[in-house]
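note to self — DONT lose this again. spent like an hour looking for the file last time. sequence + predicted structure for the chain T wanted, 512 res
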Amino acid sequence: MDPELLKILAVLLYLAVLVLIGVVASRRMHDLRDYLVGGKNLGYLAVAFSARATGESAWLLLGLTGMGAVVGYKALWVVLGEVLGVGLAWALLSRPFKRLTDRYDSITIPDYLESRFRDSAHSLRKIAAIALAIFVTIFVSAQIDATGKAFESFLGWDYTFGAVVGFAVVMAYVTAGGFVAVVWSDIFQGALMVAGLALLPIVALISVGGVRALNERLLAIDAGLLSPLGAEGATLAGVFSVIGLAGIGLGFLGSPQIFVRFLALRSEREIAPGAVVAIVWTVIADTGAVFTGILGRAIFSRPGDAAVSVLADAEAVLPMLVEHLMPAFLVGLYVAIILAAIMSTVDSLLVLAASAVIRDLYQKIRRPDLADAALVRHSRVATVVLACIALAIALGVAAVSPVRTVFWFAIFGWSGIAATFCPLMILSIFWSGITRRGAIAAMLTGMILVPVFKLGLMHAPGIGPLLVELSELPPAFAASLIAGVLVSLGDPAGRDRLLNEGIAEELKDAKR
């Protein structure tokens, strides 16, 4: 059979499975609780795979592999940061968070925040909804951009056509099956991702002759590729760069798209086995991604040639390696694996953003009397509208900026969500002293500082290059945490009110 036809057949098979999942999941859809959190009745395997597939996105298959090709072993700091972030989220945060959300009967993260801080003015709900609508749309646009690049790299399709095809498939199964379709598809897609990232570096390592031969090739190309601190070495810029890479894991300590999975667990007994699955998945997939990039650099580079083709577009290293090593049908499956990474994030984020707009703004503030059938219908419409905006952003950025990377485009959206929510989620679970005003300060600080760092301070003379190495998430995260603490300490009346309403006892019960 024609090799190009085999590739397309593998992709079509994958897309057909997703549409089938949407059709079957739609029969499990009865109300808004089903659409947004699967009825809060999911097991550990579904939640672990869904949380990991959602937490990674296209940056794992294209961005992190590209980073491995550019910086070598230094990219393993990302693996360490992610393993720590995922491990801490499951080990320390998931159980008390699950207990509190069950106590409050929350089905969204803003539901939880409003109940935790007794926010009758809906201020936290409004800020959360706005932040999610903005940063989720940016994050989703990065995934749509990656869809177009994947089809273009593997199949030679037009970028725009590929982006629209991927967009249409996600819309088909998400609007039909909601959160249940998202989770079921994430199990399928997460399995594809981890299998593909485990297999490819093994095949590539065999092709270069083993670890020793790999390191000899890297040494001949650039000795900095073998250093854990990269070419910068033990300089301030090198240390900042390592902190920035490892700091990506901070986003797992409270981001809504991850924590809504904990909220959807059927019981806290699912947490321990779920943690094991999530950590093992992270180690295999992230390490495989880094070594895919490293091996691609070794295979396609020539000693002394700094401008080799793999560096002209480092995020094409995985497609190049697959084309070089794999038969046509498996090439098509790797297209499906990249699409899995993309779609497993897009679907989750779109449901999350729709919940923010419809549940957290429209229903809870304007129309609390609205029936579930109408809410589900409105949620589907909101999902499509937000997705169309993300598609427009992706195509617009592609038109005006041909030189762009999925990794940093996605990290900006990821950082905005993480800096807005993660410090507050940590404080809300572990410190009874944080007040409503402190919570508002923490959210606004994180939400505002991510674009300030990314679009402003990183271009400033002197400090700018260091902030580029550090990236926007660690400083915005730290500032958000500090703002929440300082404002709460200056709000004794707010602390007394929460303590009088029993918040200290609630947190103590949740952490037992």
